[in-house]
């Protein structure tokens, strides 16, 4: 019964936030449905391509979801369900939703350009360059984290290769995911080159998903973890360079149906569980201020990550979604609504781990994603039953699909921002640059460099990446909130709703980075085992670089706000 009350309370509160707070934000900022969007004014058939609202919702939601709202709340559940529930709901409504919606709106008013351009308009070119460097560091962590997650859901024993019958869960997930890529390309050709309408194309796509799922449950594909990392790297590099209508839009749109189905399936299981008694929610309401992952501040707010607020979302809102939005009237649903659905997914993840919490605490699962799948599958059957195995395989597939979707989008964003870093004012593309800058701004160069670095780091253990990713991601959220607030202030619009979320996120994340730096230095000075392993050096240097860049950007932001107040 506890699980049912939690999900009902979450849905009611998040829906109220969307209706009342989301509508108030739209009114404050001046959303204008009659205004032409960058997708329509600058349509180039590659990156700027108007998309149907349902298609763009699929892209945006699938891209921001990834594995974050699943891994984060599950890891944070050690604090108890009440803190995680409150942060997912309050954070989603007043922090994450605000950032996502605000970033999307600001980008629409800057020709669909990135947060860097928004910063440049209000804080200057120096701040823009610093932000781009910071964002690229975060994107490296995004690529590394999700390469690790996807490879972990695909890999088989070392030395295995090829098609297999009677596949295990990972081999099934790999096979369906490969077929899903082909299905997405077919969908993109049918809708964009053959003129097929969205509804019949969607029906074909859904039938295709059913067929490839049946195929994957009977025939799998096996490769080693290293081979999958190489394959994933090649795939995301190609996916980030081809026009969005070929792969990005259709893949994200079709994958969103998996997520909707997963949420619906979870809701049915949660509603039925008090009647069937199939599983029991066992997470205590509150376990204490300090746990094995740290003290509640800042650990809770860093670990939950995308379930409440994520800086990566601001890059998606300004990097791809703003270039595809066909009308500003859909900005609230895409920017604000998607974040609240993701918070709901975070609550579902919390409930899922609650069904297997004792086993999770005893390290009985290889990853949070495995605990998520097992927890929800338990609602439909005992472990080892056909119902359990089928549901578990489908949930693992969904997690893998969304992590791969975030990889697609994250790599494309890194291409945009890497090129932007080396272009001067007045240079529209890499072709306008001169000398070595022309090479550095070339999309192929930036894409390959980011993918290679991300895949190398993706070979580390997820535990060596996720904590740093969480801190960097949330710090990016604080900076994005600052950027949008500065632009709104310059434009004479209400920006007061940004200051508390901005200050809180900056304080939490900088605290976490400082604690990481101190911990690594202490371990090295004490000569702790493996303290000088290159993964620890990576965490230390990355934390130092991001902390320094963030402090400089915060100083620039404070100076900007002071000037605006003086000139008001």
Give a quick set of tags describing it.
568 residues, mainly alpha, two-stranded antiparallel sheet, 22 helices, 4 strands
Task: Give the arrangement of secondary structure elements.
Blueprint: H1 2-29, H2 38-41, H3 53-65, H4 68-76, H5 81-108, H6 115-123, H7 125-154, E1 162-165, H8 169-192, H9 198-218, E2 219-222, H10 225-241, H11 248-276, E3 290-291, E4 294-295, H12 296-303, H13 311-319, H14 331-354, H15 357-361, H16 368-377, H17 386-421, H18 436-440, H19 443-458, H20 463-490, H21 499-525, H22 534-567
Antiparallel strand pairs: 1-2, 3-4
Q: Biggest sheet: strands side by side, in what order?
A: 1-2
H/E topology pattern? HHHHHHHEHHEHHEEHHHHHHHHHHH
Q: What is the overall silhouette?
A: globular
How much is the average pLDDT? 89
Give the total of beta strands: 4
Structural class: mainly alpha
Strand content: under 5%
Fraction of helical residues: over 70%
Low-confidence stretches: none
> Could you give the distance between the termini?
54 Å
Give Rg in angstroms.
Answer: 22 Å
* Largest β-sheet summary: 2 strands, antiparallel
Number of alpha- plus pi-helical segments? 22
Structure at a glance:
The protein is mainly α.
Q: What would you say this structure looks like, in words?
A:
By secondary structure, the chain is mainly alpha-helical. It is 73% helix and 2% strand. The strands form 2 sheets. Strands 1-2 form a two-stranded antiparallel sheet. Strands 3-4 form a two-stranded antiparallel sheet. Helix 1 runs parallel beside helix 5 and helix 3 packs across helix 17. The longest helix is centred in the last third of the chain and has 36 residues. It is globular, with a radius of gyration of 22 Å. The mean pLDDT is 89.
């Amino acid at each position: 019964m506890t699980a049912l009350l939690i999900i009902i309370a979450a849905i009611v509160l998040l829906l109220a936030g969307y209706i009342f707070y989301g509508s108030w934000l739209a009114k404050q900022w001046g959303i204008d449905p009659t205004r032409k969007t960058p997708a329509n004014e600058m349509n180039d058939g590659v990156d700027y391509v108007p998309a149907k609202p349902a298609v763009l919702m699929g892209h945006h939601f699938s891209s921001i979801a990834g594995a974050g709202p699943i891994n984060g709340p599950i890891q944070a559940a050690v604090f108890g369900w009440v803190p995680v529930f409150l942060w997912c709901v309050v954070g989603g409504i007043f922090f994450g939703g605000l950032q996502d919606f605000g970033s999307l709106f600001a980008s629409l008013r800057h020709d669909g350009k990135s947060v860097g351009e928004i910063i440049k308009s209000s804080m200057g070119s120096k701040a823009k360059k610093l932000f781009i460097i910071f964002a690229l560091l975060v994107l490296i962590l995004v690529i590394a984290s999700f390469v690790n997650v996807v490879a972990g859901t695909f890999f088989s024993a070392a030395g295995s290769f090829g098609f297999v019958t009677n596949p295990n869960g990972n081999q099934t997930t790999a096979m369906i995911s490969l077929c899903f890529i082909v299905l997405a390309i077919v969908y993109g050709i049918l809708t964009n080159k053959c003129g097929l309408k969205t509804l019949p194309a969607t029906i074909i796509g859904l039938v295709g998903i059913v067929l490839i799922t049946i195929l994957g449950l009977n025939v799998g594909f096996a490769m080693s973890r290293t081979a999958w990392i190489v394959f994933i790297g090649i795939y995301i590099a190609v996916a980030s360079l081809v026009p969005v209508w070929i792969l990005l839009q259709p893949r994200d749109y079709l994958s969103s149906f998996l997520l909707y189905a997963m949420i619906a399936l979870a809701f049915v299981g949660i509603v039925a569980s008090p009647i069937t008694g199939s599983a029991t929610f066992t997470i205590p309401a509150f376990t204490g201020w300090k746990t094995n992952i740290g003290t509640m501040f800042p650990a809770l707010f860093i670990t939950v990550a995308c379930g409440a607020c994520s800086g990566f979302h601001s890059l998606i809102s300004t990097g791809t979604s703003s270039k595809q939005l066909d009308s500003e009237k859909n900005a609230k649903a895409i920017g604000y609504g998607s974040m609240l659905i993701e918070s709901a997914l975070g609550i579902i993840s919390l409930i899922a781990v609650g069904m297997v919490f004792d086993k999770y605490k005893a390290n009985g699962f290889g990853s949070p994603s495995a605990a998520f799948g097992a927890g929800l599958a338990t609602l439909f059957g005992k472990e080892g039953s056909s119902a359990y195995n089928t549901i578990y395989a489908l949930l693992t597939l969904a997690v893998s699909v969304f992590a791969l979707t975030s990889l697609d989008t994250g790599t494309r964003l890194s291409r945009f921002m890497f090129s932007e870093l080396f272009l001067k004012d007045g240079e529209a593309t890499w072709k306008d640059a001169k000398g070595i800058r022309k090479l550095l701004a070339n999309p192929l160069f930036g894409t390959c460099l980011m993918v290679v670095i991300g895949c190398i780091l993706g070979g580390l253990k997820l535990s060596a990446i996720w904590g740093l990713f969480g801190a960097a991601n949330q710090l990016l959220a604080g900076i994005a909130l600052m950027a949008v607030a500065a632009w709104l202030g310059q434009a004479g619009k209400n920006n007061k709703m940004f200051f508390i979320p901005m200050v809180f996120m900056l304080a939490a994340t900088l605290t976490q980075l400082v604690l990481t730096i101190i911990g690594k230095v202490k371990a090295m000075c004490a000569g702790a085992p493996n303290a000088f392993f290159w993964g620890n050096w990576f965490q230390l240097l990355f934390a130092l670089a991001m902390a320094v860049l963030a402090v400089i950007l915060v100083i620039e932001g404070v100076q900007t706000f002071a000037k605006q107040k003086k000139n008001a």
